[in-house]
């Protein structure tokens, strides 16, 4: 996970896995998450003991260390030592990265970049990074086309290689669905809302009629908004880079859908990744949540043993992405050649498959989907759900959406200001929309 991580991501990954939301929302399939994060030391470490030290700057928990990939690489390359510098939250990490780029110093040999920031890097700072498309051993065909293009500058330069992505599903409580008279088998549940997010709201309206006492259909209107808006080919920016979020069909229809859910009383009125949201998993307060792969470990952690076998995963109404990141190599790095080789190895399909197996970071390398670690993956906590099959199908259908430099600000402002004012403070949809757009206009050129 790596907006979770990505993560999420895995982050995208949020949580992504959205990493921006918590320390490593890239969660372990069968274990805990939110491991402690090291302080961001920045810069390239000095060589010692005859070995070259490569520094890797990340935010949250990318999982390379936890999955043993650093150790594996060091065994394959005895002359290399890897030092990871991890900052807990992307909102602290990314401004520091921009400052280091401006100063021309303090950069790690490899720098991770979250999906909502990659466009700004590609469009405004491409000259400061290695063109990964020209690196020996890098094959564009290994990656999903839309993921590859997210890191592409107007010149054609590719500033980073995709790590994880966050194809969306819907996690749901079988016991609560059963009590409310809804189907519980994942294929039948998916049919309830297939092809249209409005059908997800309709399912919620059916749920509410016989809802178990003290439960809501879904956790938050923000989750619904994010799930819906990410499934459109045009979101906040047009293909030519023009900011169009106010007139965007994706934003408007997703906003209206979120407001419909609030008005119908279908949400638990929670802010995602707050303590109250975490506690609601343990209490069984809501019956469904929009979930990328990186959120599975998060749910397992927060719902605990009492939730095992009660949760399952179904396909989302439409393919959409939430979270994910990239590995970039700054041009002025001390060990640029070695850093390029490490970044290429870490993002290769085989390593992405291993990372998914160990950390639930869903690969952006489509070549990994044919590997058994991904294609045949099931999750025991979620009733043996074939998560490899479910999320692979979603990943391949995600539209190519133009990204812009302020995507993250726009998304966060809609969810954390506009939607919450309506959901928690009782403001009207018009007041929530106006508050969000005013705030966005204060920080984004319109």
UniProtKB/TrEMBL annotation:
This is Sugar-binding protein. SUPFAM superfamilies: Periplasmic binding protein-like II. Residues 436-446 have a biased composition (Basic and acidic residues). It comes from Streptomyces cacaoi. Residues 424-446 are annotated as: Disordered. Signal peptide: none annotated. InterPro entries: Bact_solute-bd_prot1, SBP.
């Amino acid at each position: 996970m790596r907006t979770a991580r990505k993560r999420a991501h895995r982050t995208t990954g949020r949580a992504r896995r959205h990493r921006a939301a918590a320390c490593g929302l890239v969660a372990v399939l069968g274990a805990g998450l939110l491991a402690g994060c090291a302080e961001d030391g920045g810069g390239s470490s000095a060589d010692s003991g005859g070995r070259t030290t490569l520094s890797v700057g990340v935010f949250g928990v990318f999982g390379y260390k936890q999955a043993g990939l650093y150790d594996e690489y060091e065994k394959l390359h005895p002359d290399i030592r890897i030092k990871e510098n991890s900052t807990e939250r992307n909102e602290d990490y990314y401004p520091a990265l921009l400052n280091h780029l401006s100063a021309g110093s303090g950069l790690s040999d490899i720098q991770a970049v979250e999906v909502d920031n990659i466009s700004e890097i590609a469009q405004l700072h491409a000259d400061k990074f290695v063109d990964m498309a020209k690196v020996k051993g890098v094959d564009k065909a290994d990656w999903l086309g839309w993921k590859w293009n997210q890191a592409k500058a107007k010149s054609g330069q590719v500033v980073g290689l995709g790590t994880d992505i966050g194809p969306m599903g819907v996690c749901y409580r079988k016991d609560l669905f059963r009590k409310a008279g809804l189907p519980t088998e994942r294929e039948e549940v998916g049919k309830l809302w297939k092809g249209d997010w409005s059908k997800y709201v309709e399912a919620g309206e059916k749920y509410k009629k016989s809802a178990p006492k003290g439960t809501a259909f879904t956790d938050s209107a923000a989750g619904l908004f994010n799930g819906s808006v990410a499934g459109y080919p045009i979101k906040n920016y047009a293909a030519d880079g023009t900011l169009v979020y106010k007139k965007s069909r994706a934003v408007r229809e997703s906003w209206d859908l979120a407001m419909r859910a609030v008005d119908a009383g279908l949400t638990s009125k929670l802010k995602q990744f707050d303590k109250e949201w975490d506690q609601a998993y343990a209490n069984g307060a809501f019956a469904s949540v929009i979930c990328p792969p990186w959120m599975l470990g998060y749910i397992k952690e927060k719902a605990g043993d009492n939730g095992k076998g009660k949760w399952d995963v179904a396909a989302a109404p439409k393919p959409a992405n939430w979270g994910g990141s990239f590995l970039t190599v700054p041009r002025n790095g001390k060990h640029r050649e070695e850093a390029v080789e490490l970044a290429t190895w870490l993002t290769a399909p085989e390593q992405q498959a291993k990372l998914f197996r160990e950390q639930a970071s869903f690969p952006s390398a489509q070549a990994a989907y044919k590997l058994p670690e991904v294609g045949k993956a099931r999750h025991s906590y979620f009733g043996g759900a074939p998560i490899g099959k479910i999320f692979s199908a979603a990943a391949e259908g995600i539209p190519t959406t133009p990204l812009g430099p302020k995507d993250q600000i726009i998304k966060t402002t809609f969810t954390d200001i506009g939607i919450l004012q309506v959901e928690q403070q009782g403001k009207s949809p018009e007041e929530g929309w106006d508050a969000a757009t005013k705030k966005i206009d204060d920080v984004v050129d319109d």
